[in-house]
Design goal:
Rossmann fold, 11 strands, alpha/beta, four-stranded antiparallel sheet, N-terminal domain of TfIIb
Length: 244
């Protein structure tokens, strides 16, 4: 996609991001899940956003560094006192270079799927692997596609009922390209439309991307709680380890 803008998602969603997703996961569960994986406590979050996970990790004693394409997201993170103590580099998660190496690289909340195509996702995984210390882990959280949500490749649903209006989700699914394009239309005190485009990948496909980057599957859970991953799982958290 020649018109791909890595900052587009953050710029479009920053105003409501915390309200929508701050309580999505219990951050303490994320910290508890990551802590036994490595002995070190240096984590790089790719797509750090407003710090939904980075701030709790920082509070738990981790040395957190972030990569974020959206200047608006970075500004929102740095409005918090703790956020100002987290080094954040503005850049594209597909390709950046930091001199440091990390015990954990974190790609949470299906951030990998915000990239436009498979080639970009392969590049992102390779870049993540380059920033891992020997024995370190890349942790990818992503949803598992559910084709039953679509009728003839389309979906229309009430996304949110708000005190001053509603938000409607209109989406289309291209099964061959593995893409989902969504328009969120908010009507009420303000009227606006926000886009979202995802290129999803199945767990086995992400495994292959990791294998190309010389990373091995270390564990896979159905959620941050460590539940078993099976054919009913709506999402997965997969740990890929870099050899010593």
């Amino acid at each position: 996609m020649t018109d791909y803008d890595p900052a587009a998602y953050g710029d479009a969603w920053v105003r409501d991001y915390d309200q929508l997703y701050q309580s999505r996961d219990d951050p303490e569960m994320v910290v508890a899940a990551l802590s036994p994986l490595v002995t070190g406590r240096a984590v790089l979050e790719m797509g750090i956003g407003t710090g939904r996970l980075a701030l709790p990790l920082h509070d738990a004693g981790w040395h957190v560094v972030g990569i974020e394409a959206s200047a608006a997201m970075i500004a929102e993170l740095q409005r918090r006192a703790a956020g100002r103590s987290i080094p954040v580099h503005q850049g594209d998660i597909r390709s950046f270079h930091l001199d440091d190496r990390f015990d954990v690289v974190l790609l949470a909340f299906s951030t990998l799927f915000l990239l436009p195509d498979q080639a970009a996702q392969v590049e992102c995984i390779a870049t993540a692997a380059e920033h891992l210390a020997p024995g370190g882990v890349l942790v990818v959280e992503a949803f598992v596609p559910d084709h039953t949500r679509w009728t003839d490749g389309k979906r229309l649903a009430l996304s949110r009922w708000m005190s001053d209006g509603i938000e409607i989700e209109a989406a289309r699914h291209d099964r061959a390209a593995q893409t989902i394009e969504v328009r969120y239309l908010s009507v009420g005190a303000r009227t606006e439309m926000r886009p979202l485009r995802l290129r999803y990948a199945w767990p086995a496909e992400i495994d292959l991307m990791a294998r190309l980057a010389d990373l091995d599957v270390d564990a896979r859970w159905g959620a941050w709680t460590g539940t078993r991953f099976d054919d009913a799982s709506a999402g997965h958290v997969t740990v890929y380890r870099k050899p010593l």
